[in-house]
Amino acid sequence: MINSHESQLSSDQPLDDPADDRLGYALFAERLAASVQTMIPTRGLVIALYGAWGSGKSTVLGFVEHYLRQKPVVEQPLVVNFNPWWFSGQENLTRQFFNQLLASLDSGDSRTEQLRERLADFAELVSKVPVPYAWGGEVAARLLRPEAKDVVELKEKVSESIAEQQRRILIVIDDIDRLTAAVIIIEPPHGSRNARRMPSHPPR
């Protein structure tokens, strides 16, 4: 006779409720969520979660979001989920990242609207900068036009706008290990490195 539990096939879907935890990840995720919610770095902070493929990294992220939702509403960060595996090409990846970020920002508040405008301008600039060996006249001409915005100055304005937000912004990027090295590593042409560097934002 086949045991009903043994006959169940796994859907390979990550968990999002710590009550279903069978691998002991819940406590780690709870502490990580508390750190994300309380830490005050001098600049934006990047936290990397390492593990073998299929070891449960996405589940840990789901648990972290669960615990963050248990906080009082005024203390909850704005969580922006982005999965780069869904998109192809470096320029498309950059543009889709900013599209997701813009879509997640609440509208109506003047400070948020200013952030949305600056992010849109910044996204247009960095997504137009070509990948190695593809330096094109169109991009160079656009960046040299008098009306073109300075990308370094705009980056600083984006950082200022983020610092003025009432809520922290937590960007969760999953499934990076599914990408190829050519997509992950973006080395800009000499002299345009600042244009390709993502903003290092003050903490919110």
Largest sheet, in brief, is: 2 strands, parallel
Based on secondary structure, the structural category is mainly alpha
Question: Would you identify the regions where 5 or more consecutive residues have pLDDT less than 50?
Answer: 129-146, 186-199
- Into how many domains do the coordinates divide? 2
Strand order of the largest sheet: 1-2
Secondary-structure element pattern, one letter each? HHEHHHHEHH
In terms of DSSP E residues, the strand content is under 5%
Radius of gyration from the alpha-carbon trace, in angstroms: 20 Å
Question: What's the SSE blueprint?
Answer:
Blueprint: H1 26-38, H2 57-69, E1 78-82, H3 90-104, H4 110-128, H5 137-144, H6 151-163, E2 169-173, H7 181-184, H8 193-196
Parallel strand pairs: 1-2
Helix pairs in contact: 1-2, 3-4, 4-6
Q: What are the salient characteristics of this protein?
A:
mainly alpha; 8 helices; single chain; two-stranded parallel sheet; 204 residues; 2 domains
Can you walk through the features of this model?
- The structure is a single chain.
- The protein is mainly α and 204 residues long.
- It has 2 domains: 67 residues, no CATH class; 106 residues, no CATH class.
- It is built from 8 helices and 2 strands.
- The protein has a two-stranded parallel ribbon.
- The relative contact order is 0.15.
- About 16% of the residues have low confidence.
